[in-house]
């Protein structure tokens, strides 16, 4: 997280002094890059290449946090900044870190079942692996379906990052007015 929060905070703060909309344009670019890099990482054949791409995807992913938090706090009076930070942190935690992994698991299971093709994946591959003593074909079928399920679920969950990127970008239209008006 820190690898993305540093350029997101320090870098976009510097750019924001010249153009305040950089505070939402930067997160927009970071989020779309994160989504695309996650999709690219999943397609890597070599583990080392996947790790490198994932490293940069996570940097891009967390560029949004610091300027978004600061922008939300700058839209309210000084007496509401802690509340603004709390509400934003709560929403991000409840949506992204709370139930976020559950849809990935559900999608992974659904995609694995589709990729398995030889019946019900969960029955033939309990715990996403072939049962002990299974034949080579079943072992490979379970591993292949499990890998595809995981891959497709990560790609599917990268799509909301692109949506979030669009929302940040669209917010730039009203940002200057919002920063000049402190909400109560």
What does this protein look like?
The chain is mostly helical and 184 residues long. It has one domain. The chain is built from eight helices and no strands. It has helices at residues 2-18, 22-42, 47-61, 65-74, 81-97, 101-116, 121-124, 136-180. Helix 1 (2-18) packs antiparallel against helix 2 (22-42), helix 1 (2-18) crosses helix 3 and helix 2 runs antiparallel to helix 8 (136-180). The longest helix has 45 residues, at 136-180. The protein starts with a helix and ends with a helix. The mean pLDDT is 86.
Question: How many strand units?
Answer: 0
What would the principal axes of the Cα set say about the shape? elongated
Question: What string, H for helix and E for strand, traces the elements in order?
Answer: HHHHHHHH
Mean pLDDT figure: 86
Count of separate DSSP helical elements: 8
Largest β sheet strand count, sense and barrel closure:
none
Low-confidence stretches: none
Radius of gyration: 21 Å
Structural class: mainly alpha
Q: Report how far the terminal alpha carbons are from each other.
A: 31 Å
Please state roughly what percent of the residues sit in beta strands, choosing from under 5%, 5-15%, 15-25%, 25-35%, 35-45% or over 45%: under 5%
- How many discrete domains? 1
Helix residue percentage: over 70%
